[in-house]
Amino acid sequence: MTDERIFNFNAGPSALPLKVLQEIQGSFLNFAGSGMSITEISHRSGYFDDVINDAVDRAKRLLKLDDRFHVLFLQGGASLQFAMMPMNFLKEDDSADYVNTGTWSTKAIKEVQILNKNYRVAASSEDKDFSYIPKDIKFSADAAYVHLTSNNTIKGTQYHQFPDTEGVPILCDMSSDIFSRPLDMDKFGMIYAGAQKNLGPSGTCMVIIRRDMLDRVDKTLPSMLKYTTYSSKNSMYNTPPCFGIYTIDLVLKWIEEEMGGLEEMETYNIKKADILYDFIDSNTFYRTTAEKYSRSLMNVTFRCPTADLEKKFIITATEKGLGGLKGHRSVGGCRASIYNAATMEGVNALVEFMDVFAKENS
Amino acid sequence: MTDERIFNFNAGPSALPLKVLQEIQGSFLNFAGSGMSITEISHRSGYFDDVINDAVDRAKRLLKLDDRFHVLFLQGGASLQFAMMPMNFLKEDDSADYVNTGTWSTKAIKEVQILNKNYRVAASSEDKDFSYIPKDIKFSADAAYVHLTSNNTIKGTQYHQFPDTEGVPILCDMSSDIFSRPLDMDKFGMIYAGAQKNLGPSGTCMVIIRRDMLDRVDKTLPSMLKYTTYSSKNSMYNTPPCFGIYTIDLVLKWIEEEMGGLEEMETYNIKKADILYDFIDSNTFYRTTAEKYSRSLMNVTFRCPTADLEKKFIITATEKGLGGLKGHRSVGGCRASIYNAATMEGVNALVEFMDVFAKENS
To answer: Which of A153, A331, B43, B114: CA 20 to 30 A from B261?
Structure first.
């Protein structure tokens, strides 16, 4: 129990900008002078139109999207997208290329298998326990799409540049690094992200999709499972997750107005990650687990000398107000998730703690 | 723009108990002494386990559910359920009975059609513009299920008792009246509800499902589209809509501890609806649109003498702090949605306004 806010290194749901939380709190009983909470407002009202349109506009400005792109809000997390992509885009004779860089890519592949659609694993880093991002991948020229996971939260790896697919559209799960850096959107047919890491609360999934992908959608699918239902109704075929979209709008506003845009956001994120990686590299007590060139700017995974020390590290850190440092239950170890909203102050506090802990336990 | 909270008669998203909103607001920056917002807490933490388990336990207590029932939290609203039901429960030779009582039933039927599954419309009130709930329906003895919509928000009709299906499980969309009254759950194989009317913010769909229905689930479906994925993982196969579940927990707590349970909730709801219907029945200016025996306790639909007067009614009411009284865009007219969280004070204020408005415009 603490009266103060901790430094939150959770992998997701994770830290949100304090300024955003304060704005939500301040207007929670009366949103925009409506006399209602944002949770009580009709999605068919002008109040909510302003919210969703502002979120879409900000996303478009930040990513410099041209008119080909639609910004949509779905539900069901990235996990529902794993099924919707093959359902929407893979006709009987089509095949898709998947790159397997860990748990989330593997889950995406599992759904193509369940659906009994054609696919090929174009590359995988499973041989080295997903500790790197594959390079020089040869994609099928006739693949309907290439699927990538831009950042692996569990192993702490990230694409620092996206492969050349020679015109085959990339569909990319960016749940853990969307809006953390500028993107060359020409490569992507679709990017998507569960909101709960860089964007807002869990329960909203942002999908940015290019027009030519919408043209390919299988029109015989159930309404809620085809992308065109969302694109033709500004994500409001049925009641959307209003509170999530509202929070995303505030987070995008924060990126745009407080941080200065995606170039500045990236600079800040690199600076935070450098502080952590530089410290770990200079220290013999800790070691990172990802190949250097594949290190994630979002999830810094590291180990202590023993599992017992890792346990002690996590408990002691929590006592000092540094939360969420436990590695994913599937791999153990430690992990500091430093998404957009993680502060430099928090990263500095973590390094300071790590230094003291190493000295006291060496 | 108002500094005060209005009386909110929105059809959904709609009013939430002020006490619930205040609790969310009060702990929004630091939930349960965690030093984090509820939107920043890991769904794999003890903090969130307590929330989701409390919500499940309260739902079970309120509805007096025995061990056969699972309480699940999904996403995608009732609209995704319209597709998931036939996908999960209708094998090739199966057929389901649907009762068509308006827009939402019609949408449920549309998804069975899209999926090319067998179904039969066992009864419909389309002949009288969905102004009543069909009686004495003859169901197929070998139907896989019977689908009903317990309350029609648009036409203002509601089942006051559920039909005898002679053992065929009823699957029921209760989006607009769940937890508004006690239920004899023996009749139901599954009930489901988008949260945004009686339960919490939009973006969470509560599904209460009986074990024998889970046994019937088509195991070849994508993970996020089969009910067993949710039942086997306490709704946490992937990140659930945490803020929605948290709010639902607080609303159920409010029903249980402040209102005294579902019997008392029903008494309160009847009292509110009676005040409104009695006033309208005693007044020649207004008229209701639903058959008397089918009148909804949740959505009181009514007309003024002319469309122009209805427009004036809605504008004037809004100016007086009575919001959300416009009928659904598909039917026009006026509608007062008085879900659980609507207060007697609000209903009395509405009747008072209606009385003055009628006198001034007769």
So the answer is: B43
In A251-340, DSSP assigns E strands to 287-288, 299-303, 322-323, 334-337
State the catalytic residue, choosing from A97, A155, A173, A177. A173
- For the domain spanning A22-258, the CATH number is 3.40.640.10
Give burial (CB, 10 Å; 0-12/13-18/19+) of B40.
buried
- Give the H/E segment covering residue B288: strand B287-288
Cα gap A309→A314, rounded to integer Å: 9
A-to-B residue pairs, Cβ atoms closer than 8 angstroms: 237
Catalytic residue (one of B117, B155, B187, B197): B197
Element (H, E) at A98: strand A95-100
Query: What's the CA gap between B17 and A337, in Å, rounded?
Result: 36
- Asked whether the beta carbons of A51 and A236 are under 8 A apart, the reply is no
**pLDDT tens-digit series, residues A115-157:** 999 999 999 999 999 999 999 999 999 999 999 999 999 999 9
In this structure, chain A runs to a length of 362
Q: What pTM value is reported for the model?
A: 0.98
Residue ranges of B 107-136 with Cβ closer than 8 A to chain A: 110-111, 114-115
pLDDT value for B331: 87
- Residues B239, A40: C-beta atoms closer than 8 Å: no
Domain boundaries along the sequence of chain A: 22-258, 261-361
- For A13, the token pair is 């749901």
Tokens describing residue B273: 């609806």
SS (H, E, C) B194-246: ECCCCCCCCCCEEEEEEHHHHHHCCCCCCHHHCHHHHHCCCCCCCCCCHHHHH
Q: How far is A203 from chain B (nearest CA, A)?
A: 4
| Tokens coding A14 | 């994770």
The structural architecture, per CATH, of the domain A261-361 is Alpha-Beta Complex (3.90)
Select from B151, B118, B119, B122 the least CA-distant residue to B135: B122
- In A, minimum Cα distance to B48 occurs at A13
Residues 290..329 of B with a Cβ closer than 8 Å to A: which? 321, 323-324, 329
**Complex ipTM > 0.90:** yes
Q: Which amino acid is at B274?
A: D
Q: Which residues pair with B173 in a beta bridge?
A: B149, B192
**Backbone φ/ψ region at B288: left (φ over 0), alpha (ψ -120 to 50), beta:** beta
Say if B22-258 and B261-361 have the same CATH topology. no
3-class DSSP state for residue A215? helix
